[in-house]
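can u do me a favor
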């Protein structure tokens, strides 16, 4: 919330979505947000695809989404338990498709123009730092996504 407030005046007037941990968005909300956005930010626990139904995502056409930022792959005992319980009925192949590279490929095939995503598990603090760097670089400084990724790598 601090980061959203910090960059509130920069291109954020049209931002919409779900923030906080009060509730989990429904599948319909995920689909509406994904299909109506030009940029999408996911900042959450576990893998992005553990929140969105895979069979619905692959059927979606989301070419309006020019940039998707996935700050996921954060694990807590509670989030791990939720994913473990929901994954009991998933095959090994299905779970493998939820990986970072596979997620990027599926999103690209669905029409997303650029994807910035974590490659391995991280902490909430590290993702908060990444979000601050991304916001400053993209919104305040007007850097391109390539320049921004380069800044993150440093």
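np, heres the sequence
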């Amino acid at each position: 919330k601090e980061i959203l407030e910090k960059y509130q005046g920069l291109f954020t007037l049209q931002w919409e979505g779900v923030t906080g941990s009060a509730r989990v968005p429904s599948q319909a909300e995920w689909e509406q947000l994904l299909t109506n956005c030009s940029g999408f930010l996911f900042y959450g626990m576990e893998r992005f695809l553990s929140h969105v139904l895979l069979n619905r995502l692959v059927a979606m056409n989301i070419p309006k989404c020019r940039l998707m930022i996935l700050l996921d792959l954060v694990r807590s005992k509670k989030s791990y338990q939720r994913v473990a319980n929901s994954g009991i009925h998933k095959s090994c192949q299905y779970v493998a498709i939820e990986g970072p590279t596979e997620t990027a490929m599926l999103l690209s095939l669905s029409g997303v123009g650029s994807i910035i995503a974590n490659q391995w598990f991280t902490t909430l603090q590290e993702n908060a730092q990444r979000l601050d760097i991304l916001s400053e670089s993209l919104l305040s400084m007007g850097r391109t996504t390539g320049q921004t990724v380069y800044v993150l790598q440093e």
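The two ends are 25 Å apart (CA to CA). hope that helps!!
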